[in-house]
Amino acid sequence: SEEEPCTGVRYRLCAALSSASPPEMLRGKRVIVTGASSGIGEQMAYHLARMGAHVLLTARTEAKLQKVVEKCLDLGAASARYVSGSMESTAFAEEVVKEAENIWGGLDMLILNHIGRSYFNFFNGDVDHVRKLMETNFLSYLAMTTSALPMLKESEGNIVVVSSISGKVASPFVAPYSATKFALEGFFSSLRHEFIIEKVNVSITLCILGYINTENAVRAVSHIIKKAPAPKEECAMEIIRSGALRQRELHYPASTVTPTLLLRDLAPEFLDGLVRNNMRVENIKRP
Ligand code: NDP
To answer: What is the 3-state secondary structure (H, E, C) of 138-204?
Structure first.
């Protein structure tokens, strides 16, 4: 019936029944994108702008955000603004949501995408770094979700959580990062259950990404990872599409992520060997 929320197993059915394509579905929608000054977040901002959405972008670097906002307006965004600040503070995370409430009086989609800086190397024992990364990559996601929930309930909107294959399958040299991404899966999967139990019609999409060709990722790992990265533009579009279609999970690129996840449960030690074999471990320079 029309009153029943479109949750759980109904996500895909609702998506299949919807005749509108994601670009049409997003016209005039109010969307927050975090980590939008570079990489995949920046590309998501441009796609949303072309689709005619209202965008509120955030990251730390104001000069970069200004440029992204200008380009979004050129590309046809219904409106584009930014708030700059660091997600190390949950107060700032809440402030961004408050800004959406002030300017739009509501919210349709919350795309949680930012990550704090970490290192690609053997775990160095710095527990404080892990704590800070948890604040930025995990707790700020919770703070934004909590603040945005009343507006998302009202709009029957979408939460999109950008995670990683490192949040499902551990690989070496990313222990702090991997911990924050595993935490996201636990928290948001539990929350999804609760939404279904309470008939809250807000979708949660977890995006499991493989290696993507953003400047920062390529700089950090191209000398170690043997395989080629997937394109950030297509990745950004797939994230928006999966959120708009209320999918439970996105695997991108599916050709590598989906088989990896199957192997994780069927043959974990074999998979661990493959993970290490796909790296030029000899290129890791201990600090
Ligand atoms: P980038 O490093 O290109 O972008 C990160 C964004 O986060 C930037 O806009 C950056 O802007 C912002 N940011 C960094 N620190 C903070 C902070 N303390 N507070 C607020 N914002 C901050 O990342 P990618 O585009 O490569 O990654 C985007 C998402 O995709 C992440 O969640 C990542 O884990 C995931 N992913 C990426 C993969 C890849 O290979 N690229 C693989 C798997 C997952 P600024 O510095 O101005 O604050």
So the answer is: HHHHHHHHHHHHHHHHHHCCEEEEEEEHHHCCCCCCCHHHHHHHHHHHHHHHHHHHHHHHCCCCCEE
